[in-house]
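To: structure desk
From: M.T.
Subject: fold request, one chain
Message: Could you run this one when you get a chance? Sequence is below, nothing fancy, just the single chain.
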Amino acid sequence: MRILMLVFLWIGAVGGILLGGGIGGFTLFGPDAKDLRESAEVISTWRQNAKNLDADGEKELAGLESKLLIAHTYSYGGIAIAVVSLALLITVLAKKSAAVPVLAGIGLLVAIALVVIVPSTKEKKGILALSVPMATAALCGFGADRARAKAAALPG
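Reply: Done. Structure tokens follow.
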């Protein structure tokens, strides 16, 4: 049972590291970083000068702000998932039982928070692609650690 949990932990953690680190790294440090910063500056300038906008202009500006929130959620959430997945993988393999439930809980909270933060239902499919490997890794890491503890407690 522990081996099965470790296999799923590896799959979930490596998926979370690659997906989260790839998306977060690409948008925060890669070619999209400059575009994201420029977009945030333009939107904040428009928001400061929004006194003369009509209802359609306000609606468009709110839509742009929502898209920027989604982009930031993907980038920072991806980095968080990659870091927590890596830490969880290391602690389970190092058999540090005290840290595994804490990291598994943090991983589940991050996965749930990402799904809750994204406002649009159309974007939830993409954020689920980030959250599901993290949740899988967290649950399997916790299960593998519990199975190891039970096996260690058995006599002989």
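Reply (cont.): The CA atoms of residues 9 and 137 lie 5 Å apart. Let me know if you need anything else for the meeting.
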